[in-house]
Amino acid sequence: MTTIHTTARLLSRLARLAVLAPLVVAGVAAQAQGALHPEQSFEAAMQAYQDGRYPAAYGRFVKLASGGHAEAARIALAMHRYGPQLYGSQWDAAPHQLRDWIAAAAGTGAAVAVAVKP
Predict the structure, then answer these.
(1) Closest CA to 101 of 91, 90, 92, 112
(2) 9 vs 12, which has greater pLDDT?
């Protein structure tokens, strides 16, 4: 092979690599973020709550609750219902989320005292 041909081939491969590298890095990062087992994610949410980082805790509980995690759903419902009184914040949730969380929390055997407005 000629040097020109070899150089052109190498540049072509490098160009493909330059296009694919960000996608590969993004995929690895996404896997790393989702790598936590639900119970590890729940523990992280509880730690955020115990540390007084309530917005971060609520976000984590919401994510778990939306995936059907019963205990996270119960806590997200309580934080949503009592947000202004206990945390000085009103936590957002769509009506469909509240219904899903109530259904998930019902599996805990715990009483769920949350009114869903139509």
Answers:
(1) 112
(2) 9
Domain that holds residue 84: 38-108
The domain total for the chain is 1
- Answer whether residue 56 is part of any domain: yes
32-61 b/e (C-beta count within 10 Å ≥ 16 → b): eeeeeeeeebbeebbebbeeeebeebbebb
What's the pLDDT tens digit per position in 38-65? 678 999 999 999 999 999 999 999 999 9
Residue 7: inside a domain: no
Q: In sequence order, which ranges of the chain are alpha helices (DSSP H)? A: 3-33, 38-50, 54-66, 70-82, 95-105
Alpha-carbon span 102 to 52, nearest angstrom: 25
Residue 76 included in any domain: yes
